[in-house]
Amino acid sequence: MLEETQFYQELSRFASTVAGMNVSSLNRMVLRKLLEASGSSHAAALVMIERIDLSRLNADIESRIRQLLKLGKAIRESAKAIQIMDFLQASIDQKIVFVNHLATLSYLHGLIQRKGISSAVYQGSMTADQKSTAIQSFRDGRRVLLASGSGGEGHNLQFCHILINYDLPWNPIEIEQCIVRLHRINQEKAVEVYNFCNLPEEVRLGGDDHPLLYGSPILDRLVQLATAGISVAYGAVSIPYIKKAEFDAAIVQDLSFINGKVQIGVRAETKTNYMIITSRYVALSDERKEGLMRLTFHEPSGAIIEGFDDAITDFECMYYRQGNLPPQFSPRIGVSLQSALKSLQHRIENDLAPFLASMRRRLHRDVTNTREYYRSLAEEMRTSLAHPNLSDTQRMERQQKIDSLPVEADRKIADLQHKYDTRIHIRACAGERYLVDVAQLIVTILYRKATRMLPVFYNPVTRRIDPLVCESCKKTTRRVVLQDGKTNFVLMCPECSRT
After folding, report:
1. What are phi and psi of 428, to 5 degrees?
2. For 242, left (φ over 0), alpha (ψ -120 to 50), or beta?
3. Residues 7-26: pLDDT tens digits?
4. For residue range 395-427, what is the model confidence (pLDDT) as tens digits?
5. Which of 109, 305, 448, 455 has the least C-beta neighbours within 10 A?
6. Cβ neighbour number for residue 207 with a 10 Å cutoff
7. Could you tell me the residue ranges of all domains in the chain?
8. Alpha-carbon radius of gyration of the chain
9. What digits encode the pLDDT tens for the residues 131-177?
């Protein structure tokens, strides 16, 4: 993949340089189209580069264009194309692949043929008969339909349920046109939509006063951001004063050991880590609801820390570069992070509860109305059977229609259930890890004749004792129930203690 990386890097540098040179044949619109093509494939970018009239350019630009052509033609395999080949071969289900650039479509078709995958091609320059033949061959069992944007217009393809947007157009309506070809009445499965993105480096054009950002279509950028790895910032919180006394009252106020006693032992100042996760969620049903959710957890324990993300804005923070992090930022936070993400999921589900309830009410309303409609229709048609002017043939046909009404009603209700089916997508999109000076208290917990020593932390950011974590379900709790364990007693939340 080295050749492909070099090609995209050189293309980005070329566009950034030429944009400031006011070359009429390589104006910003041309450069934007070139970068947009490169977001589809190196093949599409090469077609545009080959169309550039070299006779109107100076020697330096001409040399760089020839270098781009050389790099692009040296690419043997595209990372994006390899991914989609793996995806196409992963199952025998039929799939539709929408592509914006004909050069990309031709490139993918060649790869698919070499892999031995049966396919059909549909694109705008074909005749009406050729288009019908392509659609019919796909309907007859070919595994892949490669289509340009025109493939999303005027065809019912509900026999297929997997759609792949290899490129994303500017206009979201065009995306919807593609999806509705599959998402129609008589579609027996949930429609799956996959977006493939492969962007070159973003290029900054223009001066500092009026910068412009050029790259692939903005929808590509948004989808890439939604699927990229989480970006994490690292900082240390400046704490002007750490509480040194009156911890007994703080523990009584912030923690409750329902059937045990607590004694405070050693007190010491130390450092510990907290992480703020920001997640984006999208709920898709007949309507769409989306939002952001922030949650802070104590990295060593996994306890959720309420109010930390709001209170930290009152403190000064020093931020670190990725390559210069203090050793206190441990890479081993997987267990705590997993527990925190489960809590985040529960909170998002609670936040979506009114939306989900609304979808259920609307489904119940529409199903009730549909059943009432078909009940009334059947009753009306049964009454009409007694009409004296009906022939025996008409009466038999009408009875057959009456008999088919329950099946038709069930099909309509199934369509409604699919319409209101809610899919929730959650993705962590940013993280902030903070190193904080805290007061650590080693407490002794007394339960019957047993004792246990446990560290608890006074958090100067929230000005509270941090909560604990249930040793059964891993949920955060400030009310702790002590129960006998195999070797010693365990700390449990009230819910787990009752099971």
Report:
1. -70, 125
2. beta
3. 888 888 888 788 777 776 78
4. 898 899 999 999 999 999 988 888 888 888 887
5. 448
6. 8
7. 2-73, 79-195, 231-350+427-497
8. 31
9. 889 888 988 889 999 988 655 455 667 788 888 888 876 555 566 66
Helix (H, G, I), strand (E, B) or coil at 188: coil
Q: Are 214 and 199 in contact (CB under 8 A)?
A: no
> What CA–CA distance (Å, rounded) separates 434 from 157?
51
Q: Which tokens go with 477?
A: 């709790």
Q: Is 129 helix (H, G, I), strand (E, B) or coil?
A: helix
What is residue 486's DSSP assignment? S
> Residues 53-95: pLDDT tens digits?
888 788 888 889 899 999 989 988 888 888 889 888 888 889 9
- For helices 28-40 and 2-19, give the axis angle rounded to 10 degrees: 170
Count the helices and strands in the chain (H runs, E runs). Answer: 14, 19
Q: Model-level pTM? A: 0.50
The residue to which tokens 């951001």 are assigned: 225
Q: What is the DSSP code string of 357-425?
A: HHHHHHHHHHHHHHHHHHHHHHHHHHHHTT-TT--HHHHHHHHHHHHHHHHHHHHHHHHHHHHH--EEE
CATH node for 79-195: 3.40.50.300
pLDDT at 299 over 70: yes
Token pair for 381 = 């048609």
Cα distances from 112 to residues 71, 145, 288, in angstroms, run: 24, 11, 35
